[in-house]
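EfeO-type cupredoxin-like domain-containing protein (Leeia aquatica), 125 aa
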Amino acid sequence: MIKKSYALLLASTVALMVAAPSAMADTPKTMNGVTTIHLTEYNGYFAADETLTGLKPGTYDFVVTNKAGKFVGFNVQDQKSHELLGGFGLNPGETKTARVEISANGFRYRCPINVTPWYDVDMTK
């Protein structure tokens, strides 16, 4: 009985160790002073490939892919002033990029067409 429990515990631990890295978000890559964030828009929500914590003010490329199966949009705003920093419409399966300057105010994004909640992101000092 104890050997069976130990074997089950060991197998579970190994399975978690193998699965955990694939479930974690990547750290955004910065090249030539531009940090890239990949977002996928589904029907009613966004999924980010990279973690959105610990970001600093600077230049960002938001690479957005439409997997909602219908025409959608993307807007990114200054989190405090709500000034529109960039945006566009996306046909099904299309990918577009918005290059924007993000201040210490942080940013927020959403789809104005296939209405999603605002995703608020704070900047690290």
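Strands lie at 29-31, 34-42, 45-48, 58-66, 72-78, 84-90, 95-102, 107-110, 119-121. The two ends are 54 Å apart (CA to CA). ok done for today
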